[in-house]
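BUG: 3D viewer hangs when loading the predicted structure for this chain

Environment: internal workstation, default settings.
Expected: structure renders.
Actual: progress bar stalls at 90%.

Input used:
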Amino acid sequence: MFKMDEVIKIRGMMVKARIAQSVFESFDQAGVDAIVKAIGKVVYDNAEELAKDAVEETGMGVYADKVAKNKGKAKVIWNHLKDKKSVGIIGRDESKGLVFVAKPKGVVGAIMPTTNPVVTLMCNAMLALKGRNAIMIAPHPRAKAVTIKTARLINEKIIKLGGPENLIQCIEEPTLPLTQELMKSVDVLVATGGPAMVNAAYSSGKPSYGVGPGNVQVLIDEGIDFNDAAQKVIDGRKFDNGIICSGEQSIIAPAGKYDDVMAAFKANGAFYVEDQAVVDKFRTALFKEGHLCIDAVGQSVAKMGELAGVEIPYNTKVILLRSNDKDDDVLRKEKMFPVMVTFKYDTFAEAITIAKQNLFIEGAGHSAAIHSNNKENIEAAGIQLPISRLVVNEPCSTTAGGSLYNGFAPTTTLGCGSWGNNSISENLDYMHLINVSRVGYALKNRPVPTDEEIWA
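Structure tokens produced before the viewer hung:
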């Protein structure tokens, strides 16, 4: 139902955003970068406090992991952005006679998730302000306090640096009508959340960048150090109790080495369940009518055992459940808790087939991981899987969104391409939040091919 109060409230915020953005647009590169750096540094310096707030308000995740996430994302995003041009002329291509000029998009709207409210706000704000935009935030209702607090701390620093007020604004009492009105009012949207919210963003009539569900398939190749792979996969899967969309979901291991692979995982803290009667207890407890049990999302392995009525050994880090290999096994879907499902393959081609099948059940377009020393197999997976990123020999959870050790753009918004109903098949970066004007000079000395040469 149409509510004038929502329209008036968002219009008021938009007026403030427009004024702030018009002032900020006059800043030079040094001034812009000082503010972008400050956004990351505020989260870095307040990592512990904001992590505590996020865990207490949302009831999800792990405090120590959230601290690491706040600090790590702040560092890697600023390290990526600090040397990039985003004001005025940002590049030249002399061979084509082109000059590239950056222009702001205006006011960016950002829809926040409950799973990662602090770093998502920080990332979206850093990318938006790098392009001299203003940003309006729609917090998730179950994470509104920590979202608003993060924005307040950042705005206080912006003001101290001479930046305009209201560069970053939050809806203080988020409701669906207010979020919908925000989506219709801004110039471009970044939507991080469930499918319904992302689809609403794409239906808003505004240019939008969204995400899709993750369901990271982990291919374990032969001829590798299984212990090393197990450590990395477990580190990725257990991080923040499994609420990161790029977290590992399925282990696809060679049949001839399957017992060795499982032994390596068990030695590193995995609780492996092969008995399908016990696996069924987890299936029934962790999925309700084919959907994730909300009481399990972002919870510990102990909570998984409690829900399933299964005793979990002390110091267990993740739970591994042997799939029944049926096409409709619900465990093939995304699991936002520290639980994985396992499969066996006879040939590497079969491993790719299993991964592809799981991705088309859920998570196509997102990410996969491979632990291999075989370049041919690595690139076969990259060629054949419907994914936007393939992480090689690293924990996918903490590196698919960019790290100091790979070339993925650091971000909290991982585009999933047309497979995931997204507009980009790469990590959201600051370049997605600026317009670029191209100045084209005539190339008078450029050789012009004849018709015969063109059609030869």
